[in-house]
Design brief:
With 137 residues, the protein is α+β, with helices and mostly antiparallel strands. The protein has helices at 13-20, 61-68, 99-113, and strands at 4-5, 25-30, 36-41, 44-46, 51-57, 74-82, 85-96, 123-135.
Amino acid sequence: MPSRKVALSAPSPEFLEFWAEPHRCTLTTVRPDGTPHVVPVNSTLDAATGIARVLSSSTSHKVRQVRAAGESGARVALCQADGRRWSTVEGVAVVRDDPGAVADAESRATHRYGRPPRPNPRRVVLEITATRVLSNL
């Protein structure tokens, strides 16, 4: 299947189903020297709002990189693959550390992955506003 740009305003049922399945993703951030930093993550995607969320510790490298980008956020890519199916959300990430945003992201992750995330008192949310979505679905 060839890749195509996905309009989150009208995603296919297959695309929505794929992002509801409990797949591990990779999150790519860019280091100050321009090299990619790629890590496995759990994530959620709210296609209606175009927001993807990744829970993380406030001390992680990915969170430090996003914070270093300032209030305007950092360019990132969130990709998931399962066999021949894949989808990548490109966008701008910001760090949210308020308890409401963290609780919302935890609830979404629990729904997607079927279990609550492990306790982490330093938990924050990387909130990614999609600017482009590519997929073969």
